[in-house]
Each structure stands twice: as C-alpha cells, then as structure tokens.
Design a protein that fits this description.
alpha/beta; 7-stranded mixed sheet; Four Helix Bundle (Hemerythrin (Met), subunit A); 16 helices; Gyrase A, domain 2
C-alpha cells in the first residue's frame, strides 16, 4: 500500500507558539509513539481506538525523564491522510521540545521524512490525485483569499473530476472499438460511427473549455512584480502609498527623496502584486543617486508590468521619452498623475508622443485617489490580456497540466480526422489509447 518504513517530521513551522506537532506515518508509527508515551492512567497507544486523542508525557526511555507534556492523536489506516497509520504528537510549540521529541522518535526507528513525503504517500496510496497533491502546496503558499479559494476547489477535485469523467467516456468508446476489432461482423452495432464522432467531439469540446478558461496558476500563487518608474517628483511614492492605503514611502516636495527601491505586496482583485517604488530616473548628480537610478532600471528589467508615471502639470521632457523608449518591450501602463493640479498635455498627446496605445494611458490623482480604480482595472486587464472573468469562471492550470491538455487536444483532433477518413479500427484504438495515457498522466493514474 505504501512504503514499508515509518517516517516522521515536525509538521508545524519552527519557532515559538502554543502548539507544535511531530507527525509519524507508517506501519510502526503507533508502536514507536507507544514506546515513548506515558499516560497518567496507564493507557497504551497500541490499545486505544482509532481517531482518539490522549493526554500524557513523552519520556526518554534511557533517562526516564519527561521531555514534554503532550496530547497524542492516534489514527489507524486507511482513514488517514496517508492511508497509513498516523500518530500526531502535540507538544508545546517551542523549538527545543519539538526537536527533542523528534530525536526520540527517530532513535526508535522512524526515518526523517523528505520534503512533501506525507503528501507523496497520500498520492501513492490513492488517497488524493496528483492535482490535489499540488493543491495542498497551493493552500500553504496562498497569498490571497482568491488563491486559497481556488486551491481548495482543486483539493476538492474541481480539475481532476472532469478529467476522470472524460477518461471514463473515452474508455467506453475504446471498449466499443475493441469489440468491433474482435468481431468485425458486428462492428457497426458495437459502436456506430456517428456515436463515435459525437463522443470524440464532446471530449474535444471539454478539453477546449478547460484550456480556454484555464488560467496560469503561477499568477495566483506567486503574483506579479510591478515597477513604478518615472522622473523625480512625479508622484511615484504617493502612488505606492495610495495603492497600499498606508504611508509606506516617504513623500516630500523635494525631487530625489526616494534613493533606493522599496517593495511592498498588495492584493488587487484576488491577485498578489509586488509593487516596487524606484528612485527618480534622471542624469545622476552624485554617486548615491547614480546607484538609485541603476537599481530603478534593474527593477524594470525584472518586472512583469511597469507603471510609467508622468506629471500632468509639466510639459513632456526628453527624459520622459528616453524612459518610454526603454519600456517598449515591457507591458506598460502610462500613468498621468497630478490630475488635480491642471494639465499641460492631454492623454492623447502623451500616447502619441511616447508611442503607446491610447488604451494604455490612465489619468489619476494619486494624492486624492482619483482614477485609482481605473488604474487597478487596467492592471488586471493587462494580466489577463483583456479577458476579465468572474471569479467563478477562473480555473487554474500549471505548466504541466496545460501541456498535457494541449497534447490531448492534438490527439483528439487527429482521432476525429481519422474517424472521418474512415481509417481502420486498429488505428483508432491506438489514437484513443494515446489520449487515455495522457489523461492518466493528468490525474496521476498513468505515472510510474
């Protein structure tokens, strides 16, 4: 059912806290814990019912000294996370007691678990599909409520369920084809060609739907980096503070106040964005400012998106044009700031002079908050390439899943063409077996 050895690890973050947990999983989990546990009532963990919790102490068998006061949960296979016997020792949440308990567990025969090995065993023992195993990591690393919500949906089988249903329907079609191969006289009765065509078209529509509505899960998990760049004193730091809704960056009327990059995270419509406020870009007047400008340009190079901020109250300058030219290969929004202080040029004039699309220009007043909602909307549109969807339409795919779905799409199209060309059933069977193999990789059923 799983590996024959018993693994153990600290399952809570290291540091000080109310509770820390040492988890064991494997055939010897209960016996190892029982050898260290002492109950005031004389209970033996080997004799207690499954899914019960017990008060006592972890005791060093050699010295006879208590290591920690604990609550121990005992869960017998198969109704556990790994489908193996699992014991969780709830200790006080300090580094020393947790490590000491883990050392005793390892000295009794358990092996230190590798990173992710509990979830690996859950997958290998059929407790979860491979996409659900990936969803568990997404839950742990979620930076926003949307990320957590979508990860939980994956854990509940939102992706694996339609794939398994699709695989079952294609298996049924393959069975009909194989009957036709074994009994040529009953080929049309076993699987009418029209039924085969309908089944394949429905399968292709399902795959097309998943690819069309699938979004890059990396965006939700890791977010995007947005560099805020422009000349000195155009309002970059004020814009950062407005988006964060707190005074994180120092703001003064003196040009060049910001000398180094400042990074902060913000959530916009469920997406995590790392905002980078940079030093004003101009001809440096001293060594410190030169370093600040260099770091600003480095931030632009590593950014996913760029906000180029201009001062509406001042005419466009050669420096504005130089910065804009540097950004031609980047996804950029032109932010015309200080709308409340008057305009020296229009949005259309700025777009034409800096050679950007008019749709990429937003007028705002960072100080008053005017236009910020429109700016946030443009940022989200830029992320999804103009295709905004309601949250219930979001469906996350990682690179592996998208690649396998595209392979499935290609083979299904080829199979449909073969059916319409009336190729032999033997060739159609080969096509369908290939599709099923790829779908099995998506759920983990074909992995070795």
């Amino acid at each position: 059912m799983g590996d024959e050895d018993t693994i153990a690890a600290i399952s809570t973050p290291l540091g000080e806290g109310g509770i820390g947990i040492v988890r064991l999983s494997g055939p010897e989990a209960v016996e190892i814990a029982d050898g260290l546990f002492r109950s005031p009532r004389g209970l033996k963990l080997k004799e207690v019912p499954s899914h019960t919790i017990h008060y006592g102490f972890i005791v060093d068998p050699e010295s006879g000294k208590s290591v920690d006061e604990v609550l121990v949960s005992v869960m017998h296979a198969p109704r556990t996370y790994t489908r193996e016997d699992v014991v969780e020792i709830n200790c006080h949440g300090g580094i020393v007691p947790l490590r000491r308990v883990l050392e005793l567990v390892l000295s009794r025969g358990a092996r230190m678990a590798e990173p992710g090995e509990f979830t690996k065993r859950a997958f290998l023992n059929g407790r979860i599909a491979i996409d659900q195993a990936e969803a568990i990591l997404d839950i742990i690393r979620a930076k926003t409520e949307l990320g957590l919500e979508l990860a939980l949906e994956r854990l509940e089988g939102r992706f694996s369920r339609p794939i398994k249903e699709l695989r079952a329907k294609l298996l049924d079609l393959l069975a009909g084809i194989e009957v036709g191969i074994d009994f040529p006289d009953y080929e049309e009765e076993a699987l009418p060609r029209e039924r085969l065509l309908t089944g394949l078209r429905e399968a292709l529509q399902k795959v097309d739907h998943l690819l069309e509505h699938g979004r890059d899960g990396k965006l939700i998990r890791e977010g995007l980096t947005v560099a805020i760049i422009g000349r000195p004193n155009v309002g970059k730091s004020t814009l950062l503070n407005s988006l964060l809704r707190e005074n994180r960056a120092i703001v003064t009327p003196i040009p060049g106040t910001t000398r180094d990059r400042l990074e902060e995270w913000v959530e916009l419509d469920g997406l995590p964005f790392k905002l980078i406020d940079t030093a004003g870009v101009r001809e440096a007047r001293d060594e410190v400012e030169r370093l600040g400008v260099e770091r600003a340009l480095e931030a632009v190079e590593g950014a996913d998106l760029v906000l180029l901020v201009l001062d509406l109250g001042e005419p466009l300058t050669p420096e504005d044009r130089v910065i804009a030219r540097r950004l031609r290969e980047k996804r950029t929004i032109l932010v015309l700031n200080k709308l409340d202080l008057g305009q020296s040029f229009t949005a259309e004039e700025a777009a034409q002079a800096l050679e950007v699309e008019p749709e990429a220009v937003v007028e705002i007043s960072a100080a008053r908050g005017d236009g910020l909602e429109e700016l946030k909307k443009r940022l989200i549109e830029l992320v999804w390439e103009g295709q905004l969807e309601p949250r219930e339409g979001l469906f996350l795919l990682n690179i592996r899943e998208r690649d396998l779905l595209q392979r499935t799409q290609e083979v299904l199209k080829r199979t449909l063409a073969d059916v319409e060309a009336r190729v032999t059933l033997d060739l159609l069977a080969v096509d369908l077996e290939e599709v099923l193999e790829v779908l099995g990789e998506l759920t983990g059923e074909s992995l070795t």
